[in-house]
Every structure is written in C-alpha cells, then in structure tokens.
Specification:
The structure is a homodimer. By secondary structure, the first copy, chain A, is an alpha/beta fold. Chain A has 24 helices and 20 strands. Chain A has an eight-stranded parallel sheet with strand order 1-10-7-6-5-4-3-2. An eight-stranded parallel β-barrel of chain A has the order 13-14-15-16-17-18-19-20, surrounded by seven helices. A two-stranded antiparallel ribbon of chain A has the order 8-9. In chain A, helix 10 links the parallel strand 6 and strand 7. The longest helix of chain A is centred in the N-terminal third of the chain and has 18 residues. The first copy, chain A, starts with a helix and ends with a helix. Chains A and B meet through helix 20, helix 21, helix 22 and helix 24 of A and helix 21, helix 22, helix 23 and helix 25 of B. The structure holds zinc ion (3 copies). The site of one zinc ion (ZN) has 4 residues of chain B, from loops.
Chain lengths: 602, 602
Amino acid sequence: MSICLTDRLKQSIMLGDGAMGTMLSEGMKEATCPEAINMTNEKLVENIHQQYVKAGSHMIQTNSFGGTRLKLDSYGLGDQVVAFNVKAASIARKVAGDKVLVAGNIGPTGKLMEPMGSLTFEEAVLTFNEQAKALVEGGCDLFLIETMADLQEAKAAVIGAKMAADLPVICTMTFDIQERTLAGADPETVVTVLEAMEVDVVGANCGVGPDLMISIIKRMRQVSDVPLMAQANAGLPRLEGSNTIYDMTPDRMGAYVSSLVSTGASVLGGCCGTTPEHIKVFSKELKMLRSNQPKPILFSKLAGKDQTVYVGCGYQTPMIGENINPTSRKNLAEAFRTLNPKLAVEEAKAQIEAGASIIDINTGASGVDQEVMMPLAIQAVQKVVRAPISIDSSDPKVIEAGLRAVQGKPLLNSTTAKPETLEQMVKLAKKYGASLLCLTLDSKGIPESAEERFKIAEIMVNYAIQNGMNIRDIYVDPLTLTAGAQQRLVMESIKAVQLIKERLGVRTVLGVSNISHGLPKRSGLTASFLAMSLGAGLDMPIINPREPLFRLMISGSDVLTGKDHNAKRYLEENTLLGNEGVKNHQEITDEKAKRENLSVDL
Amino acid sequence: MSICLTDRLKQSIMLGDGAMGTMLSEGMKEATCPEAINMTNEKLVENIHQQYVKAGSHMIQTNSFGGTRLKLDSYGLGDQVVAFNVKAASIARKVAGDKVLVAGNIGPTGKLMEPMGSLTFEEAVLTFNEQAKALVEGGCDLFLIETMADLQEAKAAVIGAKMAADLPVICTMTFDIQERTLAGADPETVVTVLEAMEVDVVGANCGVGPDLMISIIKRMRQVSDVPLMAQANAGLPRLEGSNTIYDMTPDRMGAYVSSLVSTGASVLGGCCGTTPEHIKVFSKELKMLRSNQPKPILFSKLAGKDQTVYVGCGYQTPMIGENINPTSRKNLAEAFRTLNPKLAVEEAKAQIEAGASIIDINTGASGVDQEVMMPLAIQAVQKVVRAPISIDSSDPKVIEAGLRAVQGKPLLNSTTAKPETLEQMVKLAKKYGASLLCLTLDSKGIPESAEERFKIAEIMVNYAIQNGMNIRDIYVDPLTLTAGAQQRLVMESIKAVQLIKERLGVRTVLGVSNISHGLPKRSGLTASFLAMSLGAGLDMPIINPREPLFRLMISGSDVLTGKDHNAKRYLEENTLLGNEGVKNHQEITDEKAKRENLSVDL
Ligand SMILES: [Zn+2]
Ligand SMILES: [Zn+2]
Ligand SMILES: [Zn+2]
C-alpha cells in the first residue's frame, strides 16, 4: 500500500487513534514491557486497535513505542526487537485492512545523546533503523515517531526510519508548560529542524493538554507550511490512590477539535488518557470541519539547538560570524591540531555578544584531524551558543562528521558546482536537514562576470531543486574577490547578488571581508562593500561581527531595506553613535566634530 | 551666408589669418586707435586682408579687436562703436567675397570684471552685444572672441555675441608660461567653461609661442571633444631699438603645424608677429594633413573659477558639500538676511578642507533677498574656493542672479519636470553654460516607485537634449525620502539611480542626508544609504563632507567601483582608520578592539 500522505492531507483532515499505553495498562499489571504484550496477549492489542478503528480512526499506531533495542534492553528484551516490532505491525495490519493506515510507532530510546549523554548519533540511527525495518516487515504504511524530548534523537529516528523504507514519516515531540522540549527547543525550532529532515507531518504529542497544544500548533504554523499533527493528553495525569486519572472527558476534549484544526493541525489524535470514546467524539467533530491549508512560507530558516533564525522577507539581516577560522590565526590552528576547542568556544561567545546570528566553524589547517575536530568544535560551541551553526568545509567527510554532531538546522558551507561535489553535498543536506550554500565556482574556477556566475548558480539551484531540496533552503554565494588583486571584478559580485536574487529567488550569502584581504585600513572598504551588497539584496553577510562599523552598516541597511520597521532596533540597539535626540543636522554634526577631536581612530 | 562651422571642421582643417595689429603697426604711427584706421585708411586694412586671402586663409578677422565701446572709450571714441565695427566687417566682407569666411573679431574691454574690478557681468554683456550687432550689420559670418584673459569676460562676450545673431562663435584665450590665463584658469577649465557656453570652437591665441600652444591644445583635447583653434604668436616679442621683433620665421613656425594638428587643433592661425608669409607656409603644410577627429569624451565636467572637476568614467566621486543651506541653521539664515556672506565663506572653506569637490549654495530662508544674497554669497565663496559651485534654488530669478555672478561651469540645482520651470531652467543652463540637475518631481509631486521616477527623468532628459543640451551636462536626482516618514520607499531611490543610469546614461545625484532626516543617530543610516547608492551607480552625493564616516564610505566605494585605481587615494588619504600595515585580519581586529575601548563614540 503506497500512500502520499501530503496529498491526502491537502484533501482532508486525518484522524489517528488515542492512547495505547493507557488502554494496555487497564488490561494488565504494572511493570510489564508493553511491547512484549504483542507476543503474550495479541488479542488485547488487537482489541484496542479494533476499538479505535470503530471509533473512526483513519490511522492506528502499532504497539511499539518502546520497541528500540536500547529501550527493550531495560527489560532485558533487547534481542526481541525484531520479533516484537514485526508482530506489533502485523497485529495492526490485520485490524486495519486496507481502509485504515498503520503507523509504525517509534518512541525514544530512553538514553541521553551526546554531548549530554553517551549515546552517539550513529548508534541512535542504527537502533531506530533496526526497529523501523521490523515495523516495515510487519506491514506498516508509515512511521510515527513520537513523544520525542530531544531534537537530536528525533533526527536520528527520522534518519533511521528513512533508511529502513521510503515511507512517510510523522514526527511529534513533547513540550512542557514553557512550550519547550525537555532539551529546550521551542516549537519553531522543532518544526524547522524536522521539516528540513523531510518529515511529512510534524507536531506535538503528550504533554500538558489541548490548551497548550493549540498554542504550540499555532507557533509551528506561523513559521512553517508543513502539515501538522496534534495528539494531546486528556489533560495532565494525576494519581488517585494507585490509579492515574485524566480529567478531560471525551466531550471536553472534543470542544478543542475545531480550534486545533483552525489553528493548523490536519492530523489529530490523542495521547495519554485518551480512549476510543475520545476518538469517537473527535470523529464526529471533524465531520463538520474542513482542513485549513497553510499559506506558503516565503522566508528561510536556520536553527541552533533550541532557537530559530529567520532569513529574508523583512527579517533582520543575520550576520554569519566568520572568526572561527584558523586560516590566518596561528593560535586557533594550533588549538585545533591538539583537538582543543576552547579558543573556538571563546570566539563564538564573543561573536554572539557582538550580535552574530550564526556561527561559522572552519577547522581547516594543516595537521588538523578535521573529521574529529569539526564535531568536537561544534559540540563545544553549541554547549554555550544557541545560534545556528554554519559547517565550513569543502570536504564531504568533514561536513558529514559535523552534520552528525550538530544540533538544529545548520548551514552546509559549502558546495561548488563540480558535479560529484554537488551531488554529495545535496545528499548530505537532505539527509541531515541542512540548508546548502552554493558557491558559484566550477572546475574552471570563479568566472569573472556576474552573468557567468549567475549561470553557475542557476545550474546548481536547478540541480538541488530537482533533487528534492526546498528552494528556501538553498543559498548562493557569488564570491567576493579581493579589491587588492582583482579590483575590476569587485562590482561583479554585487551585480551577481542582484541577478541571483531577482532571477532565481534564492537567498544570497557573501563573505564580504575578503574584499579587503591583503590591504591595510580594511574596515572602510569592507563596510562600503557590505552596505553596497545589502543594497543589492544580500541576505546574509559572512563577516567579523566584532567590528562595530560593520554592525552599524547592517543595522543602518536594515532600516533602509525595510527589515527594521520604524528603525526600532537601530535606535534601541545601536550604541556606536552616542545618544543624540532628534536634533537638526548641523547641531549633530558640530557635536560629532567635537567628539571626534577627542578620539584618534574609528 | 550661413555656415555650419562644426560640420565643416569635421571635413577639413580651417586656416585663419595672421596678425592684424602687427601689420597695421608697420603701416602707421604709434598710439592710434587701430579700429579708427577702418575709417581713416580703409585701403591699408583691405590690403592686409587681401594678403591673407592670397596666402591661403579660409577665414579672415575683422579689424575690430578693440572695438567695444568700453575699449574705444580709452581713445575717447566710444560713440564710434557702431561705425567702426560696421566698417571693419564690411571691409573684410568685400575682400572675402563668398569663398572666404569673415570672422567678426572681438577682444577684451580692458576693464576688470566684478568681483576683482567694477565691470558687472550685465554691462560686459551689453558692450559685447553692441559691438557684435555692428559686426553682423557689416556682414561677418561668425564671431571670433580672442586674447581673453578672464573667463568671466569671455562668457560675457559669448553671451553678447550670441544675443546679437545666431552665428558660430570661436573663442580663444591667452595663457602664460604656467599655462594659465591671467585670471588663473587652466586650459581644461577654459575649454570646459566655453564648450558649455556652446562656443563652436575653443582655443588659445597669442601668448608664448607654438611650443606652449601644443601643450595647451593637448590639455584641452584630453578633456574635450570640441573643435580647437590655435593661434600662436611668432615667439615672444622682444624690443630691438624701437622695433618689436618676433623671432619665429614662417618656416620655423610652419614646422609646428603638423604637431598642432595631430595634437587636436582643427583651426589654425597666427597671432602677434605672424604675417601673410607665415600663413602661406601654414597653408602649404596643411595640404599634406588631415584633420584629427577627437574621440568622444564620455565623462562630465564642472568647473570652478580656475579648475575643473570630472564626473563619471572612473573619476573620483565628487562630494557636493551641502552645508551652506540656512534651512536648519538659524545663524546662517540670520547672516543671509543681513546680506553677510562671512559664515558661508567659512563653511565653504571647512567643507573644502574636508574634501568637498563642489560647494552647494542655498540662500533660501524667510526674509532673505535672495536675488542679492545669492550672487553675493557666490562671489564671496569663490574668492577663497576654487571648487565648482552648485547654485541651489528653485526660483529662476535667483538662479539667474547666481549664474551671472558665478565663475566657471556651475551646477544649476535644480529644476522639476513642471513644463514652465523646465523650459526656463534649460534656457538658463544653456545661456550661462551650466550643467542642469533635474529632480524627478512634477506637478503631482514625487512618485513612489522607481519606475515612475524614471519616467519623469526620461521626459526631462529628452526635453533637455531636444533643446540642445549635451547629455553629459544633464544630472538627475531621483530624490531621497526620509526613512523616518517613508521607510518603504527608501530603496526606490536607489533602484531609480540604477534605472536612470542604465537606461538614460546621464549622471545621477542624490541628497543622501535626507534619508535620516528627523531621526537620531543619523550618520549610520546615512552612511549605509550612501554606500548603497554608490554601489547602484550614484555619481555625486550631496552630503556633509565634514562627517568622516561619509568620506570613508565614498573613498571605500571608489576603490570598489574602480574609481580609485589600486586603492591609491584610499590608502594615502584615508586617515580615519589609523595606519595599520598589511596585517592579518585578526591582528587588525584585535588592535581595533583595543582602540575602540578608548573612544566612546564614532
Ligand atoms: Zn502522552
Ligand atoms: Zn598676440
Ligand atoms: Zn592676435
């Protein structure tokens, strides 16, 4: 049975099922491994599935929430992983027939991932893949990864599932009362990272209850046009004697259905405490509702471990901090050779304090084992920095090592147009949910003219889109040559930014500092080039954020290009220019002239 | 006889005649008024003309060099002005027939013009006009204004001649050994100002001799594509007893002819000491030569009293200093009400020291008699400032008062697209040899979109060209709205700069400071807008040159746009950024960070 979940969700709202665990716990004693019941009491599981199908579920979830080897190990049942999952899927399949979808349910391993715990990304991928393959063997139609608390683990689960079969993937995470996952990610970041992983439906499950669920769905919908799923608990559980009680009756929960749909959820279900009765009410409510199709989102997004940066469409211009690059910094190169990330961490913090939105990490220097150092640097930096990471290397192996370690939705910096490189980098970006930075550079080098650079960009962008990348995740850097060595080509970069923006509609990036490479008095040239580039439509400069003049140019340009409405940020944040009130020009000039006499240099 | 001198000069080189005064002085006693000889000894004059025609002259000059009323007054013969000039022209006409052209010769009045002397511009125009009308009455084919020592007087003579008849005008000035006129103008400025007056042939006469003449013609040709005339003396005169002796024999002078032609002269003749023998040799030399057609000049020019500023085609971006404007300066308004130019002069000097290339003068404030104050301010400023002037008013009367007073080739700032205004301003620009700044503003105001502003620009530029203006003398200002009041329109100005440059090929100007009008912390916004505009192709910003950040942006942008080859000026002149040698980026950054801790503000 092959389904296109996304197409189906365009037509109608889909109703999942309610709790399996709650139902099972009613039918059995405590402390049993729930997945073992597939083997020991198949009828119980079958019966629950049947109740949900009868209640109106279009999709039922296999009894395999704790079915990874790592989780089963806690019951000493790790070696049953294939048997349990095959069975779980086949029970559901039998009940579902060909009218109802079977979602292979995948839950957390119960282990903390690196760098907080000891579970490596690769181990996590393998354990999820093992479970997913068994679920496919048992006959599931899609995967439903749920109750995830850590985006890293969710990413590993998605990759593991996708490696098992080309089936749709739903992934929902759990949020606390602060609307953050246990690991701290907000709903925007969750949806940003998961949609980048090419998850078909993103959402939230479990947690506090339907009120909070509406708020989370709303936040996800504001920044994403991916289909959303909501599976709330029947309120927060409380203990009454030895019984766990959920206060939300089917009717009380049913009252939230229309709000959830209008807010943007197009897949509904229930989590802890919900029963076939709840699903029956939901089904009735849904008959009167149409799915609410999202408006296309035109801006781009990158994410750090728990927060998201928006690019384009009037959002503040993000600065990519360029300083973690050992090319011209001997001390950084030396630190990287000894696998010491301390200097990089300090530099990252300083750049963030100076206003960087994204931290570029380049570990390239002779004698550095980059496949080790890159993930080490990324993990160390992400311990203290919430901003998205730009993984800066031309070596696919180093990039992949970084992509496995990085949290959030990073920028893959970068690929050239060389076919084999482009192919590898697009695959990596898609697999790990990264945005891709394309340099207008092919085997013949950097073309001189803006038009030629545009042509390379066009080839790269078309290739990436044809191979499944979202246009909003493709960035082009038409490359800055140095004014010192190639003065006559300087403006070609700026023209290329304009052409690429206008004709291809992708985001643009420029490493602007290179303009003044090798020249003294660099910052004046770089600042001029920066403002010109922003005027031509540059979305993200790669720059030294610690230079106040550059920040001034960016914050000034944001006012001019309408990215800082009413100059609010410019006026509030800009401390470089003193704090004159609204005065006439001459008075300000006179005052500035006075002040300038006091200071020697910029 | 109607001639198109310019067309004729495209075909062939034209040969004028030699000295009249030298020949006359041989035939008569000293201290006579030379123009009186037309009446007293017609045959003598006729005979000289005949000798020149026989020697091969294509054009002979009337014996009317001192024929203005003001000059004749020194002999007490002012009331003979009409008689002398009519006669001078009719003698030449009789000899010339219809094969040879008669050039109505006009020389200096012998009086110093304002502000050095007491002769007003209007008086000068009138006296030249009176002579020119008489020469036309006597039958001249064109005017030849020569031996001018002061560009202001030359301008008055050109206007007076053009008011007399729609005939071609040649104007040649005299240069000293420093290659400057008596009043100090260099050859570039002379050709710039006179070609802007729509003089058909510009050149040099009299002076040191043919060597210097070649150098002057070469300098003029480098910056102009107007036809050039060279009338050298036969060397410097020296006294031998009571005789004035010129050392250059016809053959020695003839040896320079081919160099003069290859350098760019297409009208040749001789001045003091040259005789029909000289012209005969010239004629022989010319038979073997073809005229050397100039390459079109693509840059634009503005001139101050004695020096020229180049705009476009890779020349340094000129700053128009905006500070002489009483709009928001109470003390300046007060000074102008009492007709006191002192503050304006001080401001002009300060702006020049800060690097301004052009000084804008606006005298508009309530209670100011601008028709008096504007010329007063211009003259006072030009006493101390060599830069071109931008005459800033929307009132044609104030503009004309300024145009009469101003030295050099000013910018007429400005006209709107309102038909009556545009018509008047184009006429004034043409009459006084000014460049014209067109605001993209019509009776409906400033359009919002760049395309609409472009359309207004197109209408204005087409009108100006159709009415005889050179495209290189037309500047368009697509207007800067304030980011405070109209943030969403900010980038329209920059787009308009680009459209106007690309599609119309005219120079662009922007009053960039207005972008931050009414906002605090202005300079960051203005600097960003400035760099963006320069990146989009802006030729001349109107700005406060005393703000170092703006100068830094301009000098940086000049490197980026190729106007500062190898960043020579940027590195030499830019003192804002300290004097780091070529260091790696991080070291510079670290040093800058240290320094910034010492200074509070920009
Ligand atoms: Zn739950
Ligand atoms: Zn002479
Ligand atoms: Zn002469």
